Amino acid sequence: MSHSSPSSSSAALPAISHDFAKQIEEGRSPVGISHDEERDTFDEKFELKSPTALKSRSSTFAAATTRSSISAVQKALSWGTSVGAAVKPNTSSSKAEVKVNKLEDYPLGYPRVSYLLNSDDSFMMYRRFGQLHSRLLLHKQDQLREMEEELLALDKRDDKLEDTQIYLKCRSEDDERDPPKRGRSRKELLEQIEKTLMEYGSVLTQANQLQGLNRPTDRDHASVSHYFHNEQPLMEQDRDWLYRKEDLVTIREGREHAWLDAAVEGFLRWYPCRPIKYLFCSEETRAKTSNSTIHYFSRSRISFVVTLLITILILVLLVVPIWVLFYLTVTLRTGVADTVCIGVLLVCTLVFSCVLSLFTRAKRHEILAAAAG
Q1: Of 52, 150, 175, 292, whose CB neighbour count within 10 A is largest?
Q2: Can you spell out the DSSP letters for 168-226?
Q3: pTM, two decimal places
Q4: CA–CA separation, 70 vs 290, rounded Å?
Q5: Is the pLDDT of residue 337 over 90?
């Protein structure tokens, strides 16, 4: 058996290392083959036994492994780049087209009213029919009461005789017994109870969910009423639901409606001048209608203004008391300064609590925790 020279082995090794790197680039990494096993494979194939050959073999193997690792990393980076790719416009002026339906495109009547109520969160108000829910609940409740009494009478009748007591202790025996000459069996009664009870629970749950919805604000209700009064889109009996204000609910979602939000929206509606329309009406909202009495404001821009006002108010409530306390402690005597400082703290705490209750929808325990902090 002849020994290969170092030069011949060096010439043969690049081909093997190239195949090794190619496997990694193609995603076919030699799983399960360690570096030591790879070296043993080279030794068995080329019989590198001399120190010079071993040194040449080690350097060449390291270079091949490095090249294959770099290639694998480059491939991984290319995969990661393609995942987050986005399509850029051909020109800088190109913009995604947004189609907005217009109120006047719908015929006057239910089509236009349905668009109006869906065009803004403030207009989404409907009846919850609380009285009908209550009537159905009372009806189902009394039906269940009658069936409950009937079931109890059947149980007591079977309990009187020793021969029929087995029907109270074994369900299968009770189901297989002969049907009674009058009335219905316990199985039929229980099936009817189950059906009525499920209906009762469904109506009860639905009534609870509708009762939990918010009521429309006076300003939102007045806006829809003004439209109905001006345009007369429905007949008198068809628009009667709008005037049952105590039975109306709104399905408005998103940010909780607070006093400050209502104040900003009211200001915008009372003073719809051109600068306000430009600042608080987007292109989409302006395209919703050509009616001069209807104004659609961007909800996100109103929320931004409200958040900005609350932030400024919080900064004032934090900075002003600190400055006042510092000024009092420097200018006044010690005893008088302590008394005045306590008064300032009480007043600032009261103002802070009032801001939370008026400008937000914070609950009572949340206001108490914020004031105590």
Answers
A1: 150
A2: HH-HHHHHHSPPPSSS--HHHHHHHHHHHHHHHHHHHHHHHHHHTSBPPPHHHHHHHHH
A3: 0.59
A4: 63
A5: no
